[in-house]
Write a structure and sequence with these properties.
This protein has ten helices and 19 strands. It has 373 residues and is an alpha/beta fold. The chain has a six-stranded mixed beta sheet with strand order 15-14-16-19-17-18, sandwiched between helices. A five-stranded antiparallel beta sheet has the order 5-6-7-8-9. The protein is elongated. 39% of the residues are buried. The N terminus is likely disordered.
Length: 373
């Protein structure tokens, strides 16, 4: 339903607002110190940078460049804006702004009237606006920033994972996970939990359950790859989706074979498949883009730091990712089945390079994610 009544109100309001460029103060109900939304002039008209909404309201902001849409989630409502359009949508209703949304470089700008009129009307349970002193009184926003990361060193205990000539996958990934945990906690000041910190077997289901019950914000599963072709090398990162290539299907089968070998055979596989059908669809819908973004950042950093072959970012249906309700990826750090790569993976200095690469990828993702949430 289109709100045509907005047109009359906005036309009446336009004259008084045409040259108003004073900043807007946001005060919180029983909350932190006030914030300020900076107002600027674009072609003589009052606008504000969209990312001010993230600063003051912890809004989630997503750009969709394919159809030039901007999606903003604020207090549980999704606002959809179209570049160069004077209209936006919330639920099944369309609303008219005074002026169209604009983009300058990588920044988006909205008319100040959105703050002073539509936001107040649509979110009246959460914010109010005092026109005389240009102040918004708002509920304290929810903090959506990444504060807890789950690291999942693959395999363990009776499950050695992939085997090299001298090393087991389970030992290498546990060592790397421990180093990464220390660096994340020390340099980013966030909490890092590990699905295992000793040589013990933990089912894939329990790993995912642990991540969800711990209310993790990111889930990163660490592994070493293996192939019958001993010449295979390189790093690759996966996120949850049906496998798209033969290589991806092979790695998916290798990692998921844990269920068949150590968790009860065909019956256990069926339980995973029955349970995960709906869960996998939910995970794809809610977390697919974030998982993909994280995967690409990790892959780029790993290739750069290690000098290893770039095997790309791929999609596959790993059981350990299917019931993790958060951005989740599975990292294959190299081929333990390749003699040269096995030596590197077992070397402390090379492990430090991998840890640095993973750290930088996670840090970049966190900073972007926190900024747009």
């Amino acid at each position: 339903m289109i709100k045509f009544t907005n047109l009359i109100i906005l036309l009446f309001f336009a004259a008084s607002m045409m040259h108003a460029v004073n900043d807007i103060t946001v005060e919180y109900k029983d909350g932190p110190a006030p914030e300020t939304i900076s107002v600027c002039e674009l072609e003589g008209l009052p606008y504000f940078n969209v990312y001010e909404l993230n600063k003051v309201f912890n809004a989630s902001i997503r750009e969709d460049e394919t159809d030039q849409r901007l999606r903003i989630e604020l207090y549980g409502k999704q606002f959809i804006f179209l570049l160069h359009s004077g209209w936006f949508q919330v639920d099944d209703s369309s609303y008219c702004m005074l002026y169209p949304m604009k983009r300058i470089g990588l920044r988006y700008f909205l008319p100040v009237s959105v703050l002073e009129m539509q936001l107040v009307a649509i979110l009246n349970n959460h914010i109010t606006y005092n026109e005389q002193n240009r102040k918004i009184l708002a509920d304290v926003p929810i903090d959506h920033s990444i504060k807890r990361i789950i690291l999942d060193p693959g395999h363990g205990g009776v499950d050695p994972g992939a085997l090299g000539s001298k090393n087991h996958e389970k030992d290498i990934v546990l060592c790397i996970a421990g180093k990464l945990k220390k660096r994340l906690e020390y340099e980013l000041g966030i909490e890092v939990l590990m699905t295992r910190d000793t040589d013990e077997f933990i089912s894939l289901r329990n790993r995912s359950r642990f991540a969800n019950e711990s209310q993790g914000d990111l889930f990163i599963s660490l592994h070493c790859n293996a192939s019958e072709n001993r010449k295979s090398t390189g790093v690759e990162v996966y996120f949850l989706s049906p496998a798209k290539t033969n290589d991806a299907r092979a790695v998916e089968a290798l990692e998921n074979s844990v269920v068949q070998k150590y968790e009860g055979g065909e019956e256990a596989v069926k339980r995973y498949d029955d349970l995960s059908f709906i869960l996998m669809d939910m995970a794809q819908t809610e977390q697919l883009q974030e998982s993909s973004d994280l995967a690409w950042k990790l892959q780029a950093n790993l290739v750069s730091a290690s000098g290893s072959r770039d095997r790309g970012v791929k999609q596959a249906g790993f059981y350990v990712l299917r019931v993790s309700f958060m951005p989740a990826v599975l990292v294959e750090l190299g081929f333990i089945s390749n003699r040269e790569e096995e030596k590197k993976l077992a070397d402390g200095a090379f492990q430090d390079k991998l840890v640095a690469a993973l750290f930088e990828g996670i840090k970049d993702f966190k900073f972007k994610y926190d900024r747009v949430r």
